[in-house]
Amino acid sequence: MRELAPSLLVTAKTQRWTPEEVLRALVEAEITSRAASNARARLKAAAFPVVKTLEQFDLPASSIPAPTWAYLTSLEWIRAKENLALVGPAGTGKSHTLLALGHAAVEAGHKVRYFTAADLVETLYRAMADNSVGRVIETLLRNDAVIVDEVGFAPLDDTGTQLLFRFVAAAYERRSLAIASHWSFEDWGRFLPEHTTAVSILDRLLHHATVVVTSGDSYRMRESRQPRGGHPISAQRIRKG
Questions:
Q1: Pick the CATH number of 47-240 from 1.10.287.180, 3.40.50.2300, 3.40.50.300, 3.40.250.10
Q2: Pairwise CA distance, residues 25 & 109, whole Å
Q3: pLDDT tens across 67-79, in order?
């Protein structure tokens, strides 16, 4: 308002605005400026490694059906505190989808935090040093959605698995989790050493969840062969809960 007031008052005097019109213009400018500032702060706090947007996503070439995409981009699943799980081979659009949805959520006013699974577990490991795991988890769950990419990229030990379970259990029906993994759910035992804990994690993660199974060739490999485009790939959508 301070920055805009001098020039606005000149315009108001020239165009003979009423005091109410001047005040309305100043307040609207202040609200717009604060909204933009808050959006920048949310985007920084989200800690996205790169910027990916919905507009950049090539839906016809992806393995996500249009109705599923429409539901995900509506962000209703975040408002409903539901989860999202993307499962499929490397390069089939999982990370781009997570990042683009996260960016859209930030723009819509939601608080979002991005992690790779390794970074999330490492964050919780560090919190064990001063017995602050519970406090760190609660801080993370102040976000409306937490994105966990690359689940299963590296195997976890018993402690890491327990920490992951503790986080998923704390988020259950309180906040939205969005995860991506190249492992099918039946194979999660390959990177989670305790079968019972793996089942418990999946039980909470997949309840009230939209699951998208991606398939096809890697986007990156396809682009290396066909720099200007490639053929479409197929997928299936599973809705549970």
A1: 3.40.50.300
A2: 23
A3: 999 999 999 999 9
